[in-house]
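Limitations
The structure tokens in this dataset are predictions for the assembled complex, not deposited experimental models. Users should treat interface geometry with appropriate caution, especially where small molecules or nucleic acid strands are included. An illustrative entry is reproduced here so readers can see what is and is not provided.
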Amino acid sequence: MKRIDLKDVLARTVSSGYGDLVTRRTGEAVRTGIEAMLAEDDETAVIDFGTVRLMDMSCADEIVGKLLLNHGPARYFLLVGVHAAHEDALLPVLERHHLAVVAQDRAGALKVLGSLPESARLAFGCLADSGPALPDEIATRLALTPDAARDALQTLCERRVVRERGGHYQALR
Amino acid sequence: MTRVVEVPTQFDDRTFDQFARSYGADGGGRVLFDAHAAQWASPYGLLGLLAAGQAITEGGGEQPLLTLPQDRDVTHYWARAGFLRHAEQFFELHGKAPRSVARGESDVLLEITSVKGADDVHDVVSHIQDRAASILTRELGLEAAATMGFGMALSEACQNIVEHAGTGGWVAVQTYTWRRKLGRRVVVIAVADAGVGFRRSLEATQAKRFGDRWSDAAALEAALIQGVSRFRDPGRGQGLAGIRRYLNRWAGKLAVRSGTARMAMVPPWDDDVPLADQLPPFPGTQVLMIVPAHAETG
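Predicted assembly:
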């Protein structure tokens, strides 16, 4: 799993004097830097926000929005070290593009951000809190019909925030 | 022949249209901006004055004159706010300018700072996060997350200049105590340029859609309410919406004036109108953001 420190990429592609991810130009440079680091055979890229203080929406769009749009179908992205102000910048971007992504805060709690049906969001919460589960288990926990639970899990898989292995569904982590 | 443009004695967003009317009045010749009677100017007023000077200079007009306030304290404040440093580029200054300016603890969180490119936006945001975040937290009771949001709103407002104005502009941030209107402290951000304005920026992609209704007001509506941008990229046009969301969360005010129109997001504590049209024309775009302190803090 490739771990990409945004502060390092910022220093390498724009300036070592900056601690904030602001402006489209910076976002584009950082995204290009990340794209160069994505290995062909790496299924999951972990992007570390923990060292970045502030991110504006233009940067969020250039980095996360475009990474998910351009590379989301081919790999999984996990954002770590995400704090509330980062979320404020990320949420409108994800909603505008109908995207979703898994974010982990500094305490390690997982959350799915972005545009998702409520049943899928709840199903993700179950998987994040209790670990891998079968569709019937999710149906029981959320009081959904088996078909509705499968639909919710299928949506999460299509958005690449959940993986299915041997019938079990697991939140990206 | 010299044409005199009066600078209001209390020069802020409320008296800006009076200034714009005087600025746009018919008459050729060299322009004299007369601020000798000025008693007070907000960052919004000072940036408007710079934008007027920039528009004349960049338009090829003769360098305008500016008479500085007679009141020594007022001139000192204009200097401390960084106005005089920038004004020298556009105006022939008349009157007594202070030789040195005391710095240190000040209500000026960010001096008038020119914004031309992405690097300037980085510097502005960095300055606010490094030096003003504690003031925002202490004096306005904003949580850490809110000071981050403040930086984000500031960044997006400055980027409008870089991306759309077609020329440079300025930003300034200051805190005040608004005793009469609010009884609390506020932080005020002003961002202004003398560039192409919203209507011209959006004309190529939006004018046809609006047809006869296309105007400065329609352009503001398209940008602020509908989130459209001159760029085809679907990710564009989110900056102003983000500013609106941030200010709405903190009961703040946003007002954007461009050309002959001004659109405002009016919080309960203010009595501004949401849309003012057919105002005296003024070049570029002027943005005002006000964040009030939490009630228990200010």
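Some entries come with short summary sentences. For this one: Helices of chain A lie at 6-13, 24-37, 57-71, 84-96, 118-130, 135-142, 146-158.
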